[in-house]
């Protein structure tokens, strides 16, 4: 029998928000900010939740946040969320965690063939992250390949959970989706 997983949730909010031209994490969607929505979802799992706003090694994209998480905390695994995904569900996060419990290897969400957020990495991933940063390969796709990570593909009806808010156009779409969702509930 495998030991229980020592896992933390890490929300990455240290990006430059260059395409949005303002801090995405602070954008309000309903009564909460984008970051607030992600934090509320993360807390539903009952795991420790941490926020990374400053990377130890800047300008490395999400790899800088991953590196910072593993260098500053000692959990066996980290479940990574992006601060700009307000529709991600706790149910999906539990599926990632369940996959990891069985397979004990990195697992990424896969949408349209691309590895992305949310994802769960074991502590041993740090060595690969370091190598990629040294080579200036900041792509999550390359990280997933280098780790030979598992990939979970959501059903088509759930794809809206995995939309990032990176541009003013995506922000407008997220607000429309939120209005539609909140008026239906």
Could you please describe the fold and organization of this structure?
The protein is α/β, with parallel strands linked by helices and 185 residues long. The protein has a single domain (7-184), classed as Spore Coat Polysaccharide Biosynthesis Protein SpsA, Chain A. Helices cover 38% and strands 20% of the residues. The chain has a 6-stranded mixed beta sheet. A two-stranded antiparallel ribbon has the order 2-3. The chain is globular and about 45 Å long. The model has no long low-confidence stretch (mean pLDDT 92).
CATH architecture: Alpha-Beta Complex
**The biggest beta sheet, please?**
6 strands, mixed
Instruction: Tell the overall outline.
Output: globular
Name the CATH class: Alpha Beta
Mean pLDDT: 92
Low-confidence stretches: none
Assembly form of the protein: single chain
Strand % is: 15-25%
> Main sheet: which strands, in order across?
4-1-5-7-6-8
What is the number of helices? Answer: 6
Share of residues in helices: 25-40%
Chart the SSEs and their pairings.
Blueprint: E1 7-12, E2 28-29, E3 32-33, H1 34-43, E4 49-52, H2 62-72, E5 77-82, H3 90-103, E6 107-111, E7 114-122, H4 125-134, H5 140-147, E8 150-152, H6 168-184
Parallel strand pairs: 1-4, 1-5, 6-8
Antiparallel strand pairs: 2-3, 5-7, 6-7
Helix pairs in contact: 2-4, 4-5
């Amino acid at each position: 029998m495998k030991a229980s997983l020592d896992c933390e949730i890490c929300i990455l909010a240290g990006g430059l928000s260059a395409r949005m031209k303002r801090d995405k994490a602070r954008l309000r969607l309903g009564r909460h900010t984008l970051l607030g929505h992600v934090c509320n979802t993360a807390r539903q799992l009952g795991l420790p939740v941490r926020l990374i706003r400053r990377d130890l090694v800047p300008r490395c994209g999400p790899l800088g946040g991953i590196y910072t998480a593993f260098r500053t905390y000692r959990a066996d695994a980290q479940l990574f969320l992006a601060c700009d995904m307000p529709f991600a569900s706790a149910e999906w996060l539990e599926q990632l965690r369940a996959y990891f419990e069985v397979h004990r290897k990195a697992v990424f969400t896969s949408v349209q063939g691309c590895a992305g957020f949310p994802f769960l990495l074991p502590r041993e991933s740090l060595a690969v992250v370091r190598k990629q940063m040294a080579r200036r390969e900041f792509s999550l796709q390359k990280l997933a390949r280098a780790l030979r990570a598992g990939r979970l593909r959501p059903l088509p009806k759930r794809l809206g959970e995995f939309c990032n808010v990176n541009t003013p156009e995506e922000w407008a779409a997220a607000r429309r989706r939120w209005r539609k969702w909140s008026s239906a509930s």
